Inverse folding.
């Protein structure tokens, strides 16, 4: 399944770059396929892989924030592999050109 | 922590009442505190309780849908118990009256 | 259409009760049908009514927060009126009992 | 402000490539800065630009779907320009390397 997630800190400073860097370090070291974007990180794996990774990120950020809001969006379509790259490629084939990524 | 989730079926019929009924049956039988609303269900528990319950709902709906989109929003503020009722009550105290629920 | 929204403040204090109270005051005075829950507020109306109301709430909270994260989820099914109450009622009819709200 | 949005069709086929292609065509022609990812599209502009664009996409997809679920996540931090590229760059500076995008 594909999942996008983001972690927002409440009651800390206005910037979240340090927290996002911590999240992307954990995601990168997990070995799961991922793509970062300005609003969140998309990962691909089975439920336990994906949720285990998000749990680690959530709990790491919670270590020095009094409150966090984590959003997760899952697109689960069994039998379709490698959707983290194929989903947009199939759109680009329809459009006959690349989109901005 | 508090979490709200919803499950949307893709590639099935236009209505989702049967699926929402299945989800609420699983949630109700879990014993976790919950509140249903027209756009999702709010539950309260620790990470593994909450995510275990959402996983069961997700996988039940996936049994007869070719694709589903599950959205989860988590508000985690350690040390604050019973937020599923207290959060809105503290807002109502500020407003000096009840809000519609 | 039905829409649920929530506003999260970043770079302010850990609590958000004052901000949620402001939002619910604006929502209540708008006259649109609404239901508050511990994670957000569900409203019903056409696109411009719903988005106009969320814009007012968003901009009010932005007045004294350096950064806010607003989430909106829309369920649009034309031709189905009064879904803010009917959607859960149709689920309760399937279950043969009321759910917790 | 930055906003990410996605449109999910309910009561249509299992695939959504045609719909996503329509959305990205509208987004691309709008002239607003955007970045597509496997779970949604991030755009940058003021409230009316962003919401006007999402409204056009939402209504285009609604033309031939009986029901759609549109999700919008907004990160509004006034006074910070060009966040659609700068937000991840500031994370990459912290990490000392590029992330996968």
């Amino acid at each position: 399944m594909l999942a996008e997630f983001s972690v927002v800190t409440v009651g800390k400073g206005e910037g979240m770059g340090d927290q996002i860097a911590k999240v992307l370090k954990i995601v990168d070291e997990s070995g799961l396929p991922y793509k970062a974007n300005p609003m969140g990180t998309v990962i691909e794996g089975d439920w336990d892989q994906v949720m285990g990774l998000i749990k680690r990120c959530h709990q790491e950020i919670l270590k020095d924030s009094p409150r966090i809001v984590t959003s997760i969006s899952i697109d689960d379509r069994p039998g379709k592999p490698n959707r983290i790259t194929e989903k947009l490629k199939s759109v680009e084939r329809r459009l006959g050109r690349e989109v901005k990524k």
DSSP finds three helices and four strands in chain A. The beta strands of chain A are 2-10, 34-37, 40-44, 67-76. Chain A has a mean pLDDT of 97.
